[in-house]
Amino acid sequence: MSSLRTVDARDACPACGNREISTLCSGTDKLYATTTEEFDVVECKACRLVRLYPWPSPEKLRRYYPENYWHDPSGDTADRLAEAWRRFVLRDHVGFVRNAIEDCGLDGPVLDVGCGGGLFLRELGLPHERVVGLDYSVDAAAVAWGTNAVPVACAALPRAPFRKGTFSVITMFHVLEHLFDPITYIDAARDLLQPGGRLVIQVPNTACWQFLLFGESWNGLDIPRHLINFKESDLRHLLEDCGFEVLRSKHFSLRDNPTGFATSLAPALDPMSRRVRRVAETPNLKLLKDATYFLLVLLGLPFTLIESLCRAGSTVMIEARVKPKP
Question: Mean pLDDT over all residues of the chain?
Answer without folding.
Answer: 93
